[in-house]
Structure formats: structure tokens, C-alpha cells
Design brief:
alpha/beta, Rossmann fold, seven-stranded mixed beta sheet, six-stranded parallel beta sheet, 25% strand
């Protein structure tokens, strides 16, 4: 089978298109014929050896896929040929991938493979953060940092699906702000300008009830200055490169919560949540309650170029690799 193999952690250039053996079936694992694979910022960090989880070289990256079941364990509810989306621990950038059954999710006919591959981790993280961890209530205001990226677009859509009254997108360029508004944001502010004042003005001085922060650094510090009383700041990642610290007296004075959101990290704590979240998310898409456009879908061999675009900070939305 064809696969993108990472042989050196030199960045996207360390990926090589190769012919490799098909994974073998094993107890508890589902084998999936991969049609599409999502590409994210974390994948780029992995190619540079900068992600917190490090696998021994060489290996096949890729952690979110859509395709059809090739084989399933005895007694599985999944059937050969059934359409699924899945999270993989690695190996997604290949024509066949293996994953534990609990991370393979049946797909309704209304959800296409490109959309599904783009949803697995980003929409799953947004669902976990905004619904379970952030306790978003109908009518509340959400501020989304990194709003034109994959997690940002997902957060905008999931916030709207949960009944947010207003979603404010923060992004660094006009093109990115336009994309965020097209994804459903009500307003967009310039993350390179005085976005704190802009958020206060848009909320009549009250601030945001929930903040989605995959950026860290100055975005985190500034968010604490434009949050409503009892506001919740969701720590999703540190794409800005700096892990912030907080003076907890500010939390006490304003009754703020700082909340960690880690999709993969919650699986050992609650192995049932990914499937439950995926089922609800795919139902929302099928019903038209949630609109998450992924793509463009490009051939597998263009994966290194897509990952380089993440390194160059030029990506808007959620790229997907078309494997078959």
C-alpha cells in the first residue's frame, strides 16, 4: 500500500511516499481502507519532533481518517464495508490504517468522506471543550482565537449548534476573518490590533462568557481582560509558541475558570466519550444544524506541501488528503 512515511524529524520534508506492508489485523483493532485523511497543526509539529508525544522513527503520521471497514474484531458492531470515521494513534496517511474499535465511528450517508475526515479531532475537541468542559449555555457569547484554523472553524460551528448567542472570531488577516464569518461567526476582530477593546465594545463592556484559545501567549493573557464574570477560558493548545501563566488572584476577583481541553488525553479517563460525541456531531451535520466544510482535498502525495503551509501559517480551514 502507499503511505507517507516520516523518516527524519526535519519537518514536512522528512515525509516520503513509499510502498509499505498493509497492517495486520489484531485483537481489538479495526482495519480501515482509508479514503480521506485530515491534516492538522499537530501533524506538522510531529514531523518536526516538537509534539509532546514522540514515536520512534520511522512511522506513518496521520490521526484522523474516513473510509470503509476492511476487517473488524469478532463480535464487533462494525461490519466489513461499513463507512466510518476514526481517530488513529498514527498511520492515517496510508491506504490502510488500524485503530482500536472504540475510536471508529459509523458514518451516516449524509456525511461525506472529506467532511468526516476533517471533523474527527477538531470537531470532537470543540464538542468536548464547549459542551462538556466549557458548559456553554444557549445565548452566551463565545470568543474564538485562531478562528480561521481547523479548530477555530470547528469551534464556531459547534458553538452555534449549541445555541451560542454571539460568536466573535479573532484572526490575523482580512482573508482569515472573512473565512471565519463565512463559517458562522457573527463578528470578527483583528488579533493583531486592539482586539480586547473590540470584544468589550461588541459585548457592551460585559466580555465573552466562553473563550476558545488554541493559541496561548498574548491571546490567553488578553482574554482574561475581556471575559464576563464567571467566564470560562478553554485552554486548547499553544500554537503561538508560548505557554502562558496566570496570576490566580485575577481568577478569584472575576470568578473566572481556566479549563484544560485535551481530546486524546480524556480517552483513558472516559473511553466512551469519543463515540458519543461523534454520534451527536454527525447527527447535527445530517440535520443541517452543524455545517463544517473541510478541504480542499488534495492527493496523498501532496501531504508534505500541505504540512509546510501549516509551518508557514498560511492555512485557512481544514485541509484533507484524498488517499483513494
Amino acid at each position: 500500500m502507499r503511505a507517507l512515511m516520516l523518516r527524519e524529524t526535519t519537518g514536512p520534508s522528512g515525509l516520503h511516499l513509499e510502498d509499505v506492508p498493509v497492517p495486520e489485523a489484531a485483537d481489538g483493532l479495526v482495519l480501515i481502507d482509508v479514503h480521506t485523511a485530515g491534516v492538522g497543526f499537530v501533524d506538522m509539529l510531529i514531523t518536526k519532533g516538537e509534539y509532546q508525544i514522540k514515536l520512534p522513527l520511522p512511522f506513518i503520521p496521520g490521526s484522523e481518517i474516513a473510509g470503509t471497514v476492511r476487517s473488524a474484531p469478532a463480535g464487533s458492531a462494525l461490519q466489513v464495508g461499513q463507512r466510518v470515521a476514526a481517530m488513529t494513534l498514527s498511520g492515517g496517511y496510508a491506504e490502510v490504517a488500524a485503530t482500536p474499535e472504540l475510536l471508529a465511528f459509523p458514518l451516516p450517508d449524509a456525511v461525506d468522506d472529506v467532511t468526516a475526515a476533517g471533523m474527527v479531532i477538531n470537531a470532537g475537541t470543540a464538542h468536548l471543550g464547549l459542551k462538556r468542559r466549557g458548559r456553554l449555555a444557549a445565548g452566551e457569547t463565545v470568543l474564538v482565537h485562531g478562528a480561521a484554523g481547523g479548530t477555530g472553524i470547528a469551534a464556531i460551528g459547534v458553538a452555534k449548534a449549541l445555541g451560542a448567542g454571539r460568536v466573535i472570531a479573532a484572526a490575523s488577516t482580512e482573508a482569515k476573518r472573512t473565512a471565519a464569518v463565512a463559517a458562522g461567526a457573527d463578528d470578527a476582530v483583528d488579533s493583531g490590533g486592539d482586539w480586547i477593546a473590540a470584544v468589550k465594545e461588541l459585548t457592551g463592556g460585559r466580555g465573552a462568557d466562553v473563550v476558545w484559545d488554541p493559541v496561548g501567549g498574548d491571546a490567553f493573557a488578553g482574554s482574561l481582560k475581556c471575559m464576563a464574570p464567571e467566564g470560562r477560558l478553554l485552554v486548547v493548545g499553544f500554537a503561538g509558541g508560548t505557554i502562558p501563566e496566570v496570576k490566580v488572584n485575577r481568577l478569584l476577583l472575576r470568578h473566572h475558570d481556566v479549563i484544560g481541553v485535551n481530546y486524546g488525553g480524556l480517552i483513558p479517563v472516559d473511553p466512551t466519550f469519543p463515540a458519543k460525541a461523534a454520534a451527536e456531531l454527525f447527527t447535527w451535520v445530517a440535520e443541517g444544524r452543524l455545517r463544517l466544510e473541510a478541504g480542499p482535498a488534495v492527493p496523498l502525495e501532496e501531504g508534505p506541501a500541505v504540512l509546510q503551509a501549516f509551518a508557514d501559517r498560511t492555512v485557512i480551514g481544514k485541509p484533507v488528503l484524498r488517499v483513494r
